[in-house]
Specification:
Layout (H helix, E strand, L loop, with lengths): L1 H27 L8 E4 L3 E3 L4 H14 L2 H6 L3 E16 L4 H5 L2 E9 L11 E7 L8 E8 L9 H4 L8 H13 L8 E17 L2 E15 L2 E12 L1 H6 L2 H21 L4 E2 L4 H12 L3 H6 L5 H35 L1
Antiparallel strand pairs: 1-6, 2-9, 2-10, 3-4, 3-7, 4-5, 5-6, 7-8, 8-9
C-alpha cells in the first residue's frame, strides 16, 4: 500500500511539473517563434486630459464591480496588471516599414504588479505586419528569442538588431525580413517608445481571452518629446490563431459589445488604427521636420546628437581661435608698420 501511495505521489508530482512546464511554454510563446500569429486590435485614441477618467471607468466597471461583464456573459471575469514596455523600432534608411505601417522592434517587458510573472523582464524581437487581410484591425506578428552572442566575431553579431537574436533563429529572421523585400543588414534603430500600460485581462470560462490595455506612450529624439494615450481592446492572439470559428465569433461579439459601451460612455474615445511606430514618428516629425534626413544619415540617435553638438562646438571653437590668431597677426603687422 505504501509503495502504491509513493508511486501515485511521484506520478502526481511529475504530471504537475509537466503541466506547469506546458503552461509556462504557452505563456512565453516559446513554442511559436517564427510562426505567424494573428491579432485583432482596435485602437481608441484618448485625449491627454481624459486619461485618468478613462482608467477610473475601466477600474470601476471591469475590476471592482464586474456585474457589467457578467451581464454580457456570465463566464467573464477580470483582473489587471501594471506593465512597462520599452520598444526600439528598426527600419531601413528610407523607412520602408514606416510607409507600410508595419514594424520591427526589440521589446523589453517589465511586470510592475507581479515580478514573478514568467514574462517579467522578457526580451523579444517582433515583426508586426499590416494589411494581412481585408479586416483592417488584423495584423500579423512573428516573434524571435533574444540571446546575445558571447563573442562578437562577425558583422551580424555586431549588428544592433541581428546581434540580439538567438543564433538558432537568426537565419529564419533574416529570411522573413528578406521575404518582405528588405535587407536585414540595412535595419537600424529609428526611435524608442516607452509605454506605461494598465491592462485589464478578461477571462472567458477562467481562461485569459480578451485584454483592454490603456497605454501611455512617449518618445524622444534630439531633445524633442512626444506623448499620446490610447486604449487597445483585443482578443488573445493565441486564441485568435488557434481557436475554432465558434469560439472566435463569440469572443468577437463580446469585444464588440465592450467597445460599443466604451464609446457610448466615453464619447471622446475615437478609433485611430495607426500603429505606435507611425504615431510616434509622425508626431516627432512635426517637431523635427528634418527627421527623415537624420534617419537617412543615421543621425537620429541621442549619441549622434551628442556627436553633432560636439563637432559643432569644435567647429565654433576652431573658428573663434582662427579669428583670434588672424586678428592678432593683423594687429602685429600693423604695429610693425
Amino acid at each position: 500500500m505504501k509503495k502504491l501511495l509513493f508511486l501515485l505521489a511521484v506520478v502526481s508530482l511529475l504530471s504537475g511539473n509537466f503541466f506547469m512546464a506546458q503552461a509556462a511554454q504557452l505563456d512565453t510563446g516559446s513554442g511559436d517563434f517564427n510562426a505567424i500569429r494573428i491579432e485583432e486590435e482596435d485602437r481608441l485614441f484618448i485625449p491627454a486630459d481624459k486619461v485618468n477618467e478613462v482608467w477610473a471607468y475601466l477600474e470601476e466597471y471591469f475590476i471592482k464591480d464586474q456585474t457589467f461583464l457578467e451581464a454580457i456573459n456570465p463566464k467573464l471575469s477580470a483582473y489587471f496588471n501594471l506593465e512597462d514596455f520599452r520598444d526600439i523600432y528598426f527600419d531601413t534608411p528610407d523607412l520602408k516599414l514606416l510607409s507600410q505601417k508595419s514594424g520591427i522592434r526589440y521589446r523589453v517587458r517589465t511586470n510592475l504588479t507581479n515580478p514573478e510573472d514568467v514574462k517579467n523582464n522578457r526580451e523579444l524581437v517582433q515583426i508586426k505586419l499590416n494589411n494581412i487581410s481585408a479586416n483592417e484591425i488584423q495584423r500579423g506578428e512573428y516573434k524571435y528569442p533574444v540571446k546575445r552572442a558571447g563573442n562578437i566575431n562577425t558583422a551580424e553579431e555586431s549588428h544592433p538588431l541581428l546581434g540580439l537574436i538567438d543564433k538558432d533563429f537568426r537565419q529564419e529572421f533574416k529570411d522573413k525580413v528578406s521575404s518582405l523585400g528588405l535587407d536585414p543588414m540595412s535595419l537600424r534603430p529609428i526611435l524608442t517608445v516607452d509605454d506605461h500600460r494598465r491592462r485589464v485581462y478578461i477571462l472567458y470560462d477562467k481562461k485569459p481571452s480578451i485584454s483592454i490595455s490603456l497605454d501611455e506612450a512617449k518618445s524622444r529624439v534630439w531633445g524633442q518629446e512626444i506623448s499620446f494615450a490610447e486604449i487597445e481592446p483585443e482578443i488573445s492572439e493565441i486564441i485568435l490563431t488557434e481557436a475554432d470559428e465558434k469560439t472566435k465569433a463569440e469572443l468577437r461579439n463580446i469585444i464588440n459589445k465592450i467597445i460599443g459601451v466604451l464609446k457610448a460612455k466615453l464619447p471622446y474615445l475615437k478609433t485611430d488604427l495607426t500603429p505606435k511606430y507611425n504615431k510616434s514618428f509622425d508626431r516627432l516629425e512635426e517637431k523635427l521636420p528634418y527627421l527623415r534626413a537624420l534617419v537617412k544619415y543615421d543621425l537620429q540617435s541621442q549619441n549622434a546628437l551628442y556627436s553633432v553638438v560636439s563637432l559643432a562646438v569644435l567647429a565654433i571653437l576652431a573658428l573663434v581661435l582662427g579669428l583670434y590668431f588672424l586678428i592678432k597677426r593683423l594687429v602685429f603687422k600693423q604695429r610693425e608698420k
